[in-house]
Amino acid sequence: xxxxxxxxxxxxxxFSVIGLAKNVGKTTTLNYLMEMARLDGAIRLGITSSGWDGxxxxxxTGQPKPRIVTPAGALIATTVNCLAASxxxxxxxxxxxxxxxxxEVLIIECTEEGRVEVAGPTTIMELCExxxxxxxxxxxxxxxxxxxxxxxxxxxxxxxxxILATGLNAGYNLEEVKRTTSFWLEIFSFPAWEGEKPGLSExxxxxxxxxxxxxxxxxxxxxxxxxxxIDEAFDGYVFLPGAFTEILCEGLLKxxxxxxxxxxxxxxxxxxxxxxxxxxxxxxxxIQLSRTDIIGVxxxxxxxxxxxxxxRDFLKTVADxxxxxxxxxxxxxxxxxSSHEGKAEA
Length: 346
Prior knowledge:
By secondary structure, the chain is of the alpha/beta class. Helices cover 24% and strands 30% of the residues. Helix 8 (311-320) links the parallel strand 19 and strand 20 (327-329). The longest helix has 15 residues, at 26-40. The protein starts with a helix and ends with a strand.
């Protein structure tokens, strides 16, 4: 099965492509999906970004970057300034009124294939609004260009599924690449909460909530005080209203009792690998109230510094730590359904 076929088979319409670092092949993955949609001939694309992508040179490193090439008929949510820097013929469909540092976000339609710089809105609310506009305009498949430092586009409020792009740039050596990739795959694969979310009064809705194992509320308190609210007899769940930070995690690690931690979704988790290992060692799980499915991983065996790894060996290396999620090398044109199965087309 190809990555594009996996996208079609899951029946979802909104996808985020998240790069685990710069230059790991995220734009190559986007261009591949757009080209496959063009060849299909019956899929109208919608494209936007939660940051700024498709520029000729990286704004931080100054290194050249692959350009985003969009097919005719695609809908794009991008800014006035990005359009001025693009080699694209288009018509404006709608002005959104959304302001960014790169100008107002416009919804355009490409009238022919061309290169485009994409910078969309950055908040979840605005990303949802742009998504809904493009769906209303007839988009069959919407792609969000994202990254770890702008994970909003991977929120289940915004998209239904995601593709993670990894590569040699995700670490200073191969072992670090494996650790980083495995860590983020684990984060985004945390189990989903089963059952109804416990209700809170309006005055307590921004507080953390302790419940028993049946989901019945025990106590509500501010997130900063949550660790002090847990005693040795507690056995239940800790519902966090916002970000799960390293500071919060350190407090919970010192708490007595037995508990699992429930977050809104994986994009709210901001803890390092060591903290996750310590939580698992004490027997605590992290659960997501809502979850975005990962349908695949793309693997880039090269780095911007010139390091190159054998493509098939790297593909297998990533598949070995992919938690059963299929992995593809877009350039090689091959994939692995798992570390123990045969080849699949990209």
